[in-house]
Amino acid sequence: MKTPVLALTIALVATLPSSAQAPLTSWQDSAPKQAITAFVTKVTTKDSPDFVPPAQRIAVFDNDGTLWSEQPMYFQAFFAFDRVKALAPQHPEWKDKEPFASILKGDLKAALAGGEHALLELVIATHANTTTEEFDQAVSSWIATARHPQSGRLLTDMVYQPMLELLAFLRHHQFKTFIVSGGGIEFMRPWAERVYGIPPEQVIGSSIRTRYELRDGKPTLLRLPEINFIDDKAGKPVGIHQHIGRRPIMAFGNSDGDFEMLSWTTSGQGPRFGLIVHHDDPTREFAYDRSSSIGRLDKALDAAPSNGWSVVSMKNDWLSIHPPKAD
Amino acid sequence: MKTPVLALTIALVATLPSSAQAPLTSWQDSAPKQAITAFVTKVTTKDSPDFVPPAQRIAVFDNDGTLWSEQPMYFQAFFAFDRVKALAPQHPEWKDKEPFASILKGDLKAALAGGEHALLELVIATHANTTTEEFDQAVSSWIATARHPQSGRLLTDMVYQPMLELLAFLRHHQFKTFIVSGGGIEFMRPWAERVYGIPPEQVIGSSIRTRYELRDGKPTLLRLPEINFIDDKAGKPVGIHQHIGRRPIMAFGNSDGDFEMLSWTTSGQGPRFGLIVHHDDPTREFAYDRSSSIGRLDKALDAAPSNGWSVVSMKNDWLSIHPPKAD
Lengths: 327, 327
Prior knowledge:
The structure is a homodimer. Chain A has 14 helices and 7 strands. Chain A is an alpha/beta fold. Chain A has 2 domains: 18-68 and 159-317, 3-Layer(aba) Sandwich (Rossmann fold), CATH 3.40.50; 75-145, no CATH class. The longest helix of chain A is centred in the first third of the chain and has 14 residues, at 31-44. Chain A is globular and about 65 Å long. Chains A and B meet through helix 10, strand 3, strand 4, helix 11 and helix 12 of A and helix 10, strand 3, strand 4, helix 11 and helix 12 of B.
C-alpha cells in the first residue's frame, strides 16, 4: 500500500506537463543548457530581483540555421526553384533569361552565380502575382512533400530537436516565442504553427507588398512584385519593434545576420539572454562558420564572449540533432 | 449552517472570472448584444458545425470612435498640438510656418485648415527624430494627465465601457483581441495594455520608419521623418495580413475607414461577424455620421444590412457610455 504522501506526490508528478517533467532532454548537461535553465529560473521566480512578468517574457528565434538546417542552401530557394519549374509554361521567356534558364536546365550552381540580385529577382518572380490565399496554398502543398537533397527527409523534419524542446520549455514558463527570420514571412506562416507551435501572428520575416482589391466583387489581397521589408541584420530590430513593440529578453541566432538582433535584445535593461548555435558537426549535420556564404558566422562569434552570449557547439552540447525518424 | 452543496456552489461561483459572471452588463438586451452572444456561443461550442478552434479566434477593433471617443478631434491631434508647444523652443522657424504658427497662437481651427497634408506634416514633425524609447516616454507622460476639452475627464477614461466589457468577454472565450487603427502604432502601444488589456504585439496602426543605429555604442532605434505605413481604409486588411497573417473572424469599427476591414473579415469562409458603432447619442456622447469630417460613416452604414453587419445605436443599445467616474 502506498503512503498518502507518496500517492499525493505521484499524483502531482503525473499531472505536470511533459516539458516540465523532462525539459531539454536532447541537451547535454553543459554550459548552454545550464545558462538557459538558470536564466529562466531567475526571471520566473516571484521573489527574485530579476523576476520578469509573463507579458514581458518575449523570446525571438532566427529560423534558417537556428530552428532548422540551411545547407546546402536556404530551403526557401528550393521552393523558388520548384516554383520556376511549375510556372515555366506560363513564362516562355524564362528559357533565355537568367537565373531562370539555368534552373530549368537543372544547373543550380549557374543559377546562383548572379548573387543576391539574381536571387531577389527569382524570389519576386516566384512569390508574387498571386493572392495571399493562393500563395499559402502553394507553400502548404509544396512543404507537405519537399525533401532534403542529402538526407532525403522531409524539410519539416530537418528542424532541430533541442530547439523544439527549448521552444516548449520557454512556452511552459509563459514565454511568448517569435520567429524573426530573413526568410519570407508568408513562406514560414503556413507551417510554423504545426512544426514549431508558433502561430502566424508571431512570425516576423521579409515580405513583399500586398494590395487590397476586389476580384469579381470578392475582397482579395494581391501579392505585388515589390519588396516591402528585408528582415535581416539591422532590419531585425526594426522588424521586432514593428511587430512586437517591446524589446525581447531572449534572442537565439546562428549567423552574422542575427548580430543586431542579439545586440538589441541583450543591451536592454534588466536580465537578458543571447545564444548562438554554432554549426560544428560535420557528421550529424554540417560544419561551417566564418567563410560560409550561407549562414556566415564571424563577427557575432567574436562578439559573443564580451556580450555574454552563450555559444552552442552542436557537436558537443546537443545529444541529438533532428527528431527521430518515423519512417 | 450551509449545506456542503451550497458551500461548493458558492465557492465555484466565487472563483469564476467576473466577465463570465456578468458579461456585457452595459449592453441593453437588444439585437447587437444578442448577435454577439449568439455568435460567440456557436463558434465556441465544441459540437457546433460553426466551432472555431481557439487559435483562429481573432477579433479586430478599430480604436478612434470604436474603443474611445474621437470628437471634437482625434485625441492623437491633441498630443501633436502639445508636442508642438513643448518642442517650439528648439524650432524657432515654427513661429512663421503653418500649421505650427497657428497652433502656437492657440488657433486650432486655422491649424487644421491645411487639411490632411498639414496634419501629416504635423505628425511627422512631432513624432519623429527621437529614439523609440524617448517617444514611448513622451506618450506615457502625456497620456497620464491629458484631459478631454469638454468632459474634463482623462482621455483614457473616454473609452467605452460596453467595449471594455466586450474585449474581456471575448478574451474569456479564448479570442485574441487586436487593435487595427489609423492612429499611430507607437502612440497607442504605451497605454493599450493598461487601458484595454491589449499587449503591444496586438496593436496595429500607422507608422513612420525606424532605423537601427549605434549611439555612443548603444543599440538604438531612431524614428525617421518618413511615413512607413498608413493603416486606414484599404490599408487595414494589408496591416492585418502583415501583422496577424490570418483573416479575423470578428471585426468592429465605426466609420468608412473600417469598411475594407469589415469587408475583408466578413467575406471569409465559415462564421464571421461584423459590427459598426453608430454615434447617435448627442446627450451622453456625440452624434455624427454621413457628413462628419472625423469618423465619417456613410458607405459602411449603407453596406451594413446586405453584409449582415450589426449596427449599435449608442443611444439605444448601450446602458452606459464611459466607465463610472472615480473622481
